[in-house]
Fold this sequence. Notes:
The protein is α/β, with parallel strands linked by helices. It is 40% helix and 16% strand. Helix 2 (50-62) packs across helix 10 (278-287), helix 3 (75-89) runs parallel beside helix 10 and helix 4 (104-116) crosses helix 9 (259-269). It is globular. The termini are far apart.
Amino acid sequence: MTTMTSSARPFLNRRLAEFGTTIFAEMSALALTTGSINLGQGFPDTDGPEEIREAAVRALRDGRGNQYPPGPGVPELRTAIAAHQQRRYALSYDPDREVLVTAGATEAIAATLLALVEPGDEVIALEPYYDSYAACIAMAGGTRVPVTLRPHEGAFRLDLDELRAAVTPRTRLLLINTPHNPTGTVLTRDELTAIAQLAVERDLLVVTDEVYEHLVFDDAGHLPLASFPGMRERTVSIGSAGKTFSFTGWKVGWVTSTPDLVTAVRSAKQFLTYVASGPFQYAVAEALTLPDTYFDSFREDMRTKRDLLSAGLREAGFKVFEPSGTYFITTDIRPLGAALSKDGDGFAFCRALPERAGVVAIPNAVFYDHREEGAPFVRFAFCKQTDVLTEAVTRLKRLTT
């Protein structure tokens, strides 16, 4: 039976009309129907530390977090987040006024943009970008202004002149993601210094997505933008437990900033989930106090997996942009040849790859406004067990044999 309505207007809000089912849902479904190895979506295939899982069980059994937790997050977690920022980066935050716990980093991004962006405001984001950025800017009524990271000497790099030229009198904020998903780029100290100077000069807010902060593979480590001159008072920093502790289903993220900015974000967040993840908040509080050896071994394990998959992709004929951070590898499919690469069409390539090689990847073009810029690039995730990656490499080599 057809449902009748009194209006011909589409059901979906026009701000979201351009956003259909995510590519992750499509490719994960393909992985299931073809029995392929899913290197598309960025989730680990093993749980994190056993003692942290047991901490969640203990919280459940002790009745901690089974009812609504406090709106800003449980005090133990807010204190642990503040201590983590101080210990790792010498950034001092008041856990009562400058820390807000969210339902993962995705809610933190949504709440921040809904709070800070008015209709007509421009938001500059580094392209390619995590897909929720575009949707959240649209929901806030803002205008998305992409600044494209382009291949240069084996990595994707930011053109600082292009960034500066993108700022107009309507620019409200810069949305910066480093380490960067999907390219694996880590912005350098010089680049971050230039971004900070631009933000101060033009009086811009900056939102930094730092969920991969513990997956920077060079010796410099993660450099939070809030630690640069003039940035503490204008930066909203977003972090997450999911990527660092491999409990992505717990959905525990956070915001750190000034009292005024945190209050603004909380005003939007309270009408999204209100609160979430009660028992898991206590477990993450314990996770953040793990010794440096945990964070070091986690990074080294991912570095080893990066190297394994990078080498396999090169052997299979891809051009590999070796990531400096995150757990994603971006590749150029064109060296495979016109027939195999579908003439450099990443969408067609990824839709054919499960049947051809039994592996799932993601076309980077979904992360671009300028689709042609991302057309030949394909992303693989290496946050999987070693034997899974080894089998994936074996399958991918079939492409050229």
